[in-house]
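re: ur question from yesterday

yeah so i grabbed the chain u mentioned. its 791 aa long if i counted rite. heres the sequnce exactly as i have it in my notes:
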Amino acid sequence: MNPSASSAAATSAASVDDLEGSNCLHQLLQHTSNGVCGYDLQGRVQWVNPAFEELTGYRAEDLAGQVLSEFLTGEDSDRTVIARMHQQCELGEPSDEELLHHDANGRPLRLRLRCIPLMAADGTLTGYLGVHTDVTQAHLALELSHSQLRLLESVTAGQPLDKTLLDLCQAIEAVATRVRSSLLLLDEAGTRIIGGKAPSLPPSFMQFTSGLRIGEGVGTCGTAMWRREQVLTPAIGEDPAWEGFRHHPHALGLDACLSMPILDDAGNPLGSFAFYATSGDVFNDSHLGLLKVAVNVARLAIERHRRDEQLTYQALHDALTGLPNRRLLRRKLAAFADLALEEARVGALMFLDLDHFKRLNDVLGHDAGDRALIQIAARLEQLLEPGDVLARQGGDEFIVLLAPRFGGMEDARARAMHVGEGLLARLRVPVELEGRAHQLSGSLGITLYPRPDEADEGYQTLSGAAEDEGDDWGHLLHEADIALYESKGAGRARMCFFSPDMRNRIIAATQMEQSLRSALSRQHLEVHLQPQFSLQSDASLEHQLPRLCGLEALLRWNDPLLGNVSPATFIPIAEESGLIVELGHWVLGQACAVLEDMATRGHQLPIAVNVSQVQFRSAEFVPQVAALLKRHAFAPDMLRMEITESLAAEDEADMLEKVDQLAALGLTFSIDDFGIGYSNLARLRRMPLSELKIDRSFIKDLRLIDDDGLAAPAPGETPGQEVCHANEIVRAMLVMARALSLEVVAEGVETSEQFEVLRQLGCQRVQGYLLGRPRPMKDVLDEIEAGVLGA
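ran it thru and got these structure tokens back, copy pasting raw so excuse formatting
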């Protein structure tokens, strides 16, 4: 309906009739871009102009008689504004308000409504004239401008990128109509999607894009980023680029996508910003404008983030090698140590210094020295496992931080020793400089953490380095530095572990090492043999003696000055100094000689020899064993090598290769101290094992079980309250060993009760002071020859 045809809508107000009768006003109503309508005194529409029809999408016939405040508004319209307009109309006052409406298609429509009372000549109110101006775009532009300003302020203030991009998506969606937004981020290479934000889409929608490589035909966004241009997909269901994952948008009722790439100044893709809608006809120029705004803000945020990351990287990394510097190392150390303390883990901190590196600089120059440091850094980094940290302290010093693991100090020490040996060995590989090979070495100081109770009281490092950042774990750096200093003082090209009494311990250890070398050369060391016995199913200690079935060779040291030195004291020193390789070879030689002697006398008893991890990893180990077997005449399977559970659990190609080589020589293997380490059973099955030795820590807790299933009480325990878990643990070990076709030796049997429990559990072999203490080889061999030992 237009003003010239308004006779179909009756009006009772003469002023309104006069208004329609004016030809000048008629032309104005026909051509103005403002929507104009006439209301009666009850606020019902009497007529509308063409602009109002176009603005709202309704025809005049649909609007006639409607109250617009009820017909065009919705739940999101401000009811306070509507009430105020009604009040002003009742008073005959003009009003000028802005109110959110909805057009015939449900689109939000923000209108400025100026309501003018129409008065008769006598001053009587006869109706109202409403002038409606579309301010939707202006309102959106203002709101977007404010959001854009806030976002830019956030970027400048260094707000985290994730938060900025989320705010951007939400700000764009607040002004965009009938769409959902998606922002995707690419990796540094600009080839693969690594994340993004989509606040109005479910997490699964974004998850399917993670890891996708962009390219032609990889969805709308992947194609847009690949082409570096805007891409529109009006019908996802028909576009082959969406093959394989169109079900994600379809599940949300979305079948159209408009995507614009986010490009840096060089035109390289950083990501994309996209709108999803139910159909392609939803998109219009306003959506394109919003995409441009979003892309510009996103580009600034991403580039600022990457610049900040680069600056942070430069502040925390060594410029020459790219390794973490001391500042970053201190942060990681604090985090690792806190974790270790909280979760009862143990890690290690190592200071590594290149020995006499100044000589190389002096001879070849600092440029060559820098190239050497780069080579060394690359080598050392290859030795570390994921999670461990290699940092450059400065000059020719490096720091290695081994991440904390579950286990005790000894496990951590063994791991640190293994890593340290690898580091030192890798340093000994010559570096190529100026066309020539140059030999280097290094010294290593190691401390284990956490030990917060040993925090220093501000003492200086021996190298004189001052701490630049205070934290609760700075003392660990001091400890490693002290250990490094002692390592250098002990002759360089070696490693040292820190202890609170470091200087005295190192002095004592050095003296002990010298005495041990002297004892080895002067034959003050002895190999004692401890018997192992097999049990019969119906045997008991009182009625039938167990049968001798094997021996274990144990090293003993009775020094003229030091007296009897416990293996627990001198074996670690021998391992730290490397003397264990020579000692172990000597013990193997003694065992081979005994085996040959017994073979000539017609006795076939296997002898077990403990093999140190250091000795086992020695490159000369396998050739030395082969030479011993060639020198002594006995059946090779009589020589049984006892290796620790931790060594057997290592999945090292070198270790497995050595085991295979030794097995090919005819030797057998036993896992010593089984149960106190962390074994991979699948790996144990791959090894040529013949025996497991249950650690004495499990044997000492064995108890006889009464008819009620309760263990006999230990001294100080109340009868009937103790259930012995050690019995069940040992039982489980025996079951597992039988499943692997392995014999079992229980070591550390010292009481009749332990012996009887083991017999009842079906243990095959036992060893311990109850049945036989370690004694000199000659005494044991004489008893075997006389038939006194064993039955």
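noticed a couple things. DSSP finds 29 helices and 27 strands in the chain. also Residues 1-17, 452-470 have pLDDT under 50 and may be disordered.
anyway ttyl
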